[in-house]
Amino acid sequence: MTIPLGPLPLPRTDDDLGPRLRKGIEQAATPALDRPEAMRLQVRCAVPDIDLLDVDLSGTAITAPPVRSHGPEDLQGSAGPGPEPQEEAEVAAASTPGRLRRLQVRARPMEVLGATVRIDARLRDIRVAWEERAGSGSLVLNEPSAQSPLHGRVELGVSQAGLVTAIERLGTHLLEGRGALDEVELEISGAAPGALRVNGSGRIRWGLLRARVRIGAQVDVQEADAHRPGAGSGPGSGPSGSGGALGGGQPVMLATLSQVAVSSRHPVAAAMLSRAAKDIRALEGRRVPLRSSDGAVAVTDLSVTTGPELSVCAVLGGGPD
Fold first, then answer.
1. Would you kindly state where each structural domain of the chain is located, as residue ranges?
2. How far apart are CA 171 and CA 297, in angstroms?
C-alpha cells in the first residue's frame, strides 16, 4: 500500500506525520471507504522507523466492492496512442527503508457491504519505505515476503444475519449487472471441537434464469504436527513441502474439507453447477495448509466462535509479542 504524504520535505515528527498520514490514507482508500472523516489515527515515529500506527475505522463504511479497474484501452477505445513508456514510469529519486514496529487497525464497528463488522488487527515488524518522487513524498507499506513474513493477530466479528447481507451484495456485484443473488439463507455452526458446519442456499436471478442453489460442507481445522516430516503434504494436499512448521518451528494450521454438497432442483442451474461441484468435491479429504505459497502469510492458531454472532481470531506467524 502506498500512502501519499504530500509535498517534500517528508514529515519527521509525530505532529507532522499524523495529519499527513490521515489525509494520505483517505486518498489511498478512495472511493472504497465511505465516511472517512470518522477515521481516527495516532502515530509515534522515530524516522525512518515508526514505533506505532494506530488506525481506528469505527464509523466508516465500505458500501460496495472495489470497482474493477480497466486499462486505458478499455476507457479510451481508439482515441489515440498513450504516453510513451518513459513518460508513464517515474523512478523514485530516493527511497529510505524503515520498519513499522506496530500496526493496529480497529473498527468497533464499521459497515462492510451492509454488515456490521468488528475488527481488531495487531500486526508487527512491517517493512516500509519513505519515497521522494517529483517533489512529493509517500510512505510505502511493503507486501510481506518469505524473508519478512506477517506476524500478529487478527480478530473479526460479524452477525450471521449481517454476513447474509454482505454475501447477497457481493454475489450481485460479481454478476456484473446481468443478475442478482438474493434470498440467501446461511447457518454456520460448530459441528465438533475444531470443526465447522456450513449450510446455505440462495436464489440466483440471471436473465430468464431463476434458481435456488444449495450448498453444504464441513471444515475441520487442526494444528499440523511440527515433528512429523511433511505434515500436511500428504496425497492431494498443497504444494510440496507445505504444512508442518514454519522456519521458527511454529506449526501451521491445516484445514480439511468434507461432506461437500452443491445442488439445485432447477435442471439448467444443476447442469451449470455440475462442473463446479466436481471441482469442489475433488478437494474433499485434502489437508490444506493455511498459508500462502511463499510462506509470507501463515495461520499458526485459529479459533472460531459460532452462534448469532460469528467471531474469528487468527494468529499469523509467531503472533504478537
1. 2-63+94-142, 159-224+250-317
2. 27
